[in-house]
Write a structure and sequence with these properties.
about 130 residues, mainly alpha, rod-shaped
Length: about 130
């Protein structure tokens, strides 16, 4: 009689324990799948960023755009050393630029960021 009672209780305990083990395995597989998906996404993002930088460097190899922008941004610096007339030109030029519509000012910023590297510009502006 004692064995008749122990058998079903043992089966019930065994079934309960198997259920807990399966549930634990499922949770672990879910976490593992999530980590794998996040890792794959980050790898694709990193590869895409690197690929973009490589393509931009190749495209800039034969372009005068960077040199043109460097000369253009150097002009105010040089004019500041040319006496009051140079500083006046720079002040009036920047005052005129400040009156331009926001979309124009933002477009200039995007052009410069695209030329010199968006990530570098983003890091620079993030510090401010």
């Amino acid at each position: 009689m004692f064995q008749m009672l122990i058998g079903p209780i043992a089966n019930l305990a065994s079934t309960w324990l198997e259920g807990r083990v399966e549930k634990s395995k499922a949770k672990h597989e879910l976490k593992l799948t999530k980590v794998k998906a996040e890792t794959e996404f980050l790898q694709q993002k990193l590869t895409g960023t690197i690929d973009w930088d490589i393509e931009m460097a190749k495209a800039s190899a034969t372009s005068w755009k960077d040199e043109w922008l460097t000369m253009l941004f150097s002009l105010p610096l040089i004019l500041c050393f040319c006496g009051e007339w140079g500083r006046t030109i720079v002040r009036e030029g920047f005052a005129a630029l400040a009156t331009m519509p926001d979309f124009y000012q933002l477009t200039l910023g995007v052009i410069v960021a695209a030329s010199f590297g968006f990530r570098g510009a983003a890091k620079f502006f993030a510090k401010k």
